[in-house]
Amino acid sequence: MHFLLCTVAALVALTSALPTAPNHSHVIHEKRNSLPAKWAKRSRMDSTAILPVRIGLKQRNVDRAHEYLDSVSNPTSKSYGKHWSIEDVRNTFAPNDESRDTVLQWLSQNGVSTVKNEGALHTLEFDMSVAEAERLLKTEYFVYEHDGSGTAHVACEEYSVPEHVSDHINIITPTLHFDVKPSQHLQRRDIPNPADPLTGSHPYHEEYQGPTTPTKAGDDDNSDSMQTCLDAITPDCLRSLYNIPEPTSSPSSDNSFGVVEYSPNTYNGDDLDQFFTSFTKFDKGARPDLVSVNDGTLDDSDPSSFELHGESNLDFQYAMGLTNPQKVTLYQIGGNTMTASDADFIKTKVVSTSWGFNEKDLTPMYMETLCNEYMKLGLQGISILFSTADHGVAGNTETCDNNDRFQPDFPASCPYVTAVGATMLDASATDIAGTLSSGGQPEVAIDSNVISGGGFSDVFAMPDYQQDVVAKFLKDSPPSYSGDQFNNSGNARGLPDISLNGHGYAVIVGGKQQAVDGTSASTPAFAAMITLINEERLAAGKGTVGFLNPVLYQYADKYVKDVTSGRNPGCGTDGFEAVEGWDPVTGLGTPDYVGLRDVFMGLD
């Protein structure tokens, strides 16, 4: 799950380039002590290859990030809902002139003559050869290979900058940052840009073995229709499970919903049409609005390939299936290098992303930089939702490091996003409709091809909104594992925040119905719910809800159904246990739409 973050750039001309740079003492800016799991160093990188170098400058006021975001998202704040403009965000966090001038002078002294300066003003961009980058950063670039997939990646293991420059730089890429995907979901393919890592994790799937004719839960008054949801989850199943209403036929032009995808994975239009005909009440022909980022394009080749179309088909069949005729935006990200830059391309009020990394694949500085970009989106009234990975406490990979330390997922571990885990219907349930009508919980933590990711961050501190519930979990249900296996400090960001069903989604791929599991399924479904709540708030003359977590935690008793059965095993352990209240398996539990809507409608 990463963002490729770019905006319209202005050229900054650098003058007085010197033939040789002054002899400043260098300090290590970032360093890796070990490689991510399954990556091995192979060979030195071709010195003539061109790298797209990105330098993130230190930004002002990031130490007040939590304070700023809390002021507009905490329902007890007098400024709740008073979201910032993009101009307010840029002016508040723009680097100071000293930082910009110092870094530009250093680059000029090292022969860099032209630099792009992105719209948010905190990232400098330029291209240089591997040999030039090695001299600039006092490092060596190697080709690394993932032993499960053969994926190639270019990186270094440490880099240095002059001591007087280090204080003005946040992060430089490409350097230490790896991207690991489960091997069974990878395609071996060439990387056109030597600094471009492949992205994210895919959902699991298997050929659907259910009834030939799809059944829509709720088609009639027969409670047996809900039992078919054990065979396949459909939009009507989700509506019945979570009291989700049919969307309005005339959505507000101020409402918007976006889904992020990474090339080459793209949706297939024929599959969308077949899904709409089979499982919804609207006609075929609806398509997401395409926003191409870094040359992201749609790929109609090999329509039966799950690797090419599975993730995006899943996302849009349910994002659109639950919210149509609300327009949905596709942010299709191309194959350029990842940068911890700004996120100006995101304009929609809700964004769902089902891609991610283990924290260990990146570096703390990189994650903190990118997490602050999500904070800025929250300030603007945008709800950011990320899936929590599909291998339990092992995160995005089936195996952990040699010490079997748990692998929290990023960006889900960022305290400024909403992390969504997955549940499933209890396979032994004989009367789902009756359980729902009596207010019971028919779901347990997912235990299938997928195990919901969850745990405690090794990078981010526990946010205020989580402190009470996480402290209760650690006191009442203390995990038996030591600090060698997870961050048991009692002050770590816990995840997930909330969960939805993520098992057995009926998805059309290549004209065939398949069953799909994953937090990749639960995340767009919850994002669709938030989009519908935004619609109701806009109709009442209110604003969109923005960053969700302070409200989700403060009012959990008004809308949550607790999940108290199941675990998320991984790393050779049974993982954590779902218990009463918040837990690092299913978070707060599953949401009831009506209860959550009433909470948000009661706020200004």
Automatic annotation (TrEMBL):
EC number: 3.4.14.10
Recorded coiled-coil stretches: none
Enzyme class: hydrolase
Annotated spans, Disordered: 183-228
Compartment(s) of residence: Secreted, Extracellular space
Cited CDD domains: Peptidases_S53, Pro-peptidase_S53
Described purpose of this protein according to its UniProt entry: Secreted tripeptidyl-peptidase which degrades proteins at acidic pHs and is involved in virulence.
Location of the active site: 311 (charge relay system), 315 (charge relay system), 520 (charge relay system)
Stated name of the protein: tripeptidyl-peptidase II
Organism: Polyplosphaeria fusca
Regions that span the bilayer: none
Pfam families, per database record: Peptidase_S8, Pro-kuma_activ
